[in-house]
Design goal:
Elements: H1 2-24, H2 32-37, E1 46-48, E2 53-54, E3 63-69, H3 76-88, E4 95-102, H4 106-116, E5 123-127, H5 131-135, E6 143-147, E7 153-158, H6 163-174
Parallel strand pairs: 3-4, 4-5
Antiparallel strand pairs: 1-2, 1-5, 3-6, 6-7
Length: 175
Amino acid sequence: MLLVFGLVLLLAAFYTWKVVTNNRNVPESEAPALASLKTVQGQAPYTDIDGNEVYLSDYVGTVLVVNSWASWCPACSAELKKLSEVMQEFEEAEVVALAINRAEPSMTAVSYLKTIDSTGSLKLVLDPSDRYYSSIEGYNMPETVIYDRKGNVVMQKHGAVTKVELKERIEKLLD
């Protein structure tokens, strides 16, 4: 009986050692938030409304506010205006706001933006495959995500966000 107990104890110790050693050898994985900003090899990059390539990973190192919008979203026009107004207050800071359109043709997005007439300093991005929205597991519109300088998500708001929420989060990240 003592022999069986000793054998079980020895096996448990070996198993524990093996698990601990294997965990030390696992490379540190990339933050899921940072992964949502990267374009995987073989994927078409995002583009701005003029057709220029946009790589979201280029904005790691700044505070990044990303808003997902579409012309069929009733709350999106107010959200884009609100975001534009807030961004005017942070023009001198290292803050970038991207407004990423959800899988609409370029002409539809551009026509819609003309009706808003107030996108100011927002960088307007087209995502024809809707991969950004999928990568953040969005489920409501509009959807706003704020990333810190390292690419970590510090806020994800499903639905409309208030100016106060935006300002407080951005100011906190800039301190």
